[in-house]
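Re-run requested by the PI after the first attempt was lost when the workstation crashed. Everything re-entered from the original request form. Ligand of interest: shikimate-3-phosphate.
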Amino acid sequence: MSAHGTPTPMTSHPSGALSGVAHVPGDKSISHRSLILGALAVGETHITGLLEGEDVLDTAHAMRAFGATVTDHGDGEWTVNGVGVGGFAEPDAVIDCGNSGTGVRLIMGAMATSPITVTFTGDASLSSRPMARVTDPLALFGTQAVGRQGGRLPMTIVGAADPVPVRYTVPVPSAQVKSAVLLAGLNAPGQTVVVEKEATRDHTERMLQGFGAALSVEETDEGRVITLTGQPELTPQTIIVPRDPSSAAFPVCAAIITPGSDVLVPNIGLNPTRAGLFTTLQEMGADLVFENMREEGGEPVADLRAKFSPDLKGIAVPPARAASMIDEYPVLSVVACFAEGVTDMQGVKELRVKESDRIDAMAKGLRAAGVSVDEGPDWWKVTGLGHGNVPGGATVASVLDHRIAMAFMVMGMATQKPMSVDDGSPIATSFPIFEGLMKALGAQIMRVNS
Ligand code: S3P
């Protein structure tokens, strides 16, 4: 299957040393939120460094359908003229969120407390993912939802005409669910309270405060308690989107496993709720340093320098760190193959409901490449073979999942035989320049004509 109908098979051949500077695209989470909050503000929000991947472009399209004026000025510079909290118009057509769970779940929240009816759809991957985790809390505001069995897309949401504020404890560690409830709370009178037992990425909280909403966060025995006062007037902002740590993960991990490599990945957002992979890599013995640590646009930012790391060892990744690196487990499992010993990843059942079942997709590909993987419902373990010893030579299904495709392309740079994916087209959802950027560092990635 392909994101575009035509599969793009790709092969990554063992490469020489990777070197140079890798400018990865803007952060996906912050890009979605910039467009949505810009659409809910009154006046013009100015964004630079927006990720122009398919997921975010689908959200831009959706914001236009709700009545915002969204303009692409080229080279990552965008403006959004918003309609204000409660100002969303009813779209004329179905909202297609493509491959993006973040897009659809945040937009559902943003429209849930306006008196409009909206039908959402997406690709085969998104249409298989659970939406009840969002529509259940939205029902507390008075929102109705009708979807396919199991709460799947396509789904129609009837926004609450007279929303009431809610108090909701998020049952799974999910920034998307937390954000959907907060965005719905924007147009409810009074205070909406969200409690999360495990901290997840906090871009929504930071950005809502930046746009002028009254929002407070308290650490309690219950967890993080986020209190939002509804019906604010959001003030338009100037947003500089930091570069995406989840995209930086690919050139960083490629450099760590490929002999002789030395790669600089500048301007990476290092919000502590996102940076768990880098801590984990350092614990495994990776030669990874943060240069030029600074703060930009309210987010910590640094330049990452990653070098080939000859003495990697497997570790137990603390479950408490899972939320801060949830999108990075596929590429971490690749690094684990080149370490000595077992890398043990526990408390990661959310990986089974991402763009694909990521434990299943990675385990299948790693085993086909000669690596031993054990797995359970919420854990998996990869037994490393050490540098130079990972056979490779497999073709893996990318199952409409950008991070699965990129992880196996990184793996092929350091295996004995090339690694292939049946379809690299999903990479365009989050990292459209991946192939060119990796080739410029010295990677040998080829498209294979089917
Ligand atoms: C995201 C939250 C995470 C993450 C996704 C982006 C966000 O999903 O996997 O890529 O921007 O809020 P969950 O909320 O399902 O954990």
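Saved to the shared folder this time. The pocket of shikimate-3-phosphate is lined by residues 29, 102, 174-176, 179, 201, 326-327, 350 (CB under 6 Å).
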